[in-house]
Design a protein that fits this description.
Layout lengths: L1 H5 L5 H13 L3 H6 L7 H15 L4 H5 L1 E4 L2 E4 L12 H17 L12 E5 L5 H9 L4 E6 L2 H13 L6 E5 L20 E6 L14 H6 L2 H4 L9 H11 E10 L5 H11 L2 E8 L5 E8 L1
Parallel strand pairs: 3-4, 3-6, 4-5, 6-7
Antiparallel strand pairs: 1-2, 7-9, 8-9
Bound molecules: S-adenosylmethionine.
Length: 293
């Protein structure tokens, strides 16, 4: 732990615990219940190797290969963004919106997703697609990403949670494939009821402001969207407007300074109603939701 502290690793106690639990293959309860346990030399060497890499800037999650999101454990590799807690607000907002629609439509507020078509744009580890597919067991889920390596991780996460057959993973830019579907496939141009996305939203000009762990280790295509970080929102909102059913819901994660830009896009197009903004636990406007008018 001292090496992590001296290396200025944030949350160094937690990092030390997670790395040791990973090497020993145990949980926290076992770790604290067995203070007398001697660690065998091979395991100790492995642990100190991981500590050195953590001090060198590699995020703990890439060393342990996992991160929890929405109460589920996800595999993460350096091909995918590490799922963040604030992204869980996307799921909360999406589920709340679907529930409200059911009530408005006079249906019972059953949230099994029967008949719903859902898309997750820029799925990365698959955390949003998998969490939604678990919460809406009757929904059909589509998840896109431009990174084939990320999609491989997302597919493994879907399999890990027993829903590999419920999510269609597609390599493409945004939702392009639904505008020009290959003939005779399941990718019909039927509209969606819900589109969610946590797109890249950091500006290249802001790269130096990112923590070293993020800047040097997380995939650039998951972080950056042009010079100002706003490049993805406009085409994504345009595509969503064409692909959502009337009343269909778009839920977007926002960069810390993206609200004005995204709200401006949605308001200017006049194609949206019931626009709402949800703050994260730090008070930052984090999620914008809107319904196709
Ligand atoms: C911020 S990460 C989000 C990953 C995951 N949804 C999450 O919340 O942890 C953005 C993801 O979008 C993908 N991406 C970037 N540009 C894209 C594009 N034009 N079309 C589709 N996916 C894109 C990246 O490869 C990355 O996996």
């Amino acid at each position: 732990m001292a090496r992590l502290r001296e290396g200025s690793v944030p949350s160094h106690t937690l990092a030390a615990e997670l790395l040791l639990m990973h090497v020993l293959g145990c949980d926290r309860a076992w770790l604290y219940a067995h203070p007398e346990e001697l660690v065998d030399p091979g395991k100790a060497e492995e642990y100190f190797g991981l500590v050195a890499r953590r001090v060198g800037g590699v995020p703990t999650q890439y060393l342990t290969g996992r991160q929890e999101f929405w109460g589920l454990e996800f595999e993460v590799t350096s091909d995918v963004l590490i799922p963040r807690p604030e992204t869980e607000h996307v799921i909360e907002v999406a589920l709340a919106r679907i529930g409200q629609q059911n009530l408005r439509g006079g249906q019972r507020p059953a949230l099994d997703g029967a008949g719903l078509r859902v898309a997750d744009v820029g799925t990365g580890s698959g955390c949003l697609a998998v969490a939604l597919a678990r919460e809406l067991p009757q929904a059909q889920v589509f998840a896109t990403d431009i990174s084939p390596a990320a999609l491989a991780v997302a597919r493994r996460n879907a399999a890990r949670h027993g829903i590999a057959d419920r999510i269609h993973f597609i390599e493409c830019n945004l939702l392009d494939v639904f505008f020009d579907p290959p003939p005779a496939t399941h990718l019909s141009s039927l509209p969606f009821d819900l589109i969610v996305s946590n797109p890249p939203y950091v500006g290249r000009s802001e790269a130096e402001l990112l923590p070293r762990e993020v800047r040097e280790h997380e995939p650039a295509e998951a972080l950056f969207a042009g010079e100002r970080g706003c490049e993805i929102y406009e085409p994504l909102i345009g595509q969503a407007q064409q692909l959502l059913v009337p009343g269909g819901v778009l839920v977007l994660e926002l960069g810390y300074n993206a609200l004005e830009h995204v709200d401006g896009l949605v308001t200017a197009s006049r194609g949206w109603s019931r626009i709402s903004v949800t703050q994260d636990l730090a008070g930052i406007p984090r999620v914008l939701a809107a319904e196709r008018a």
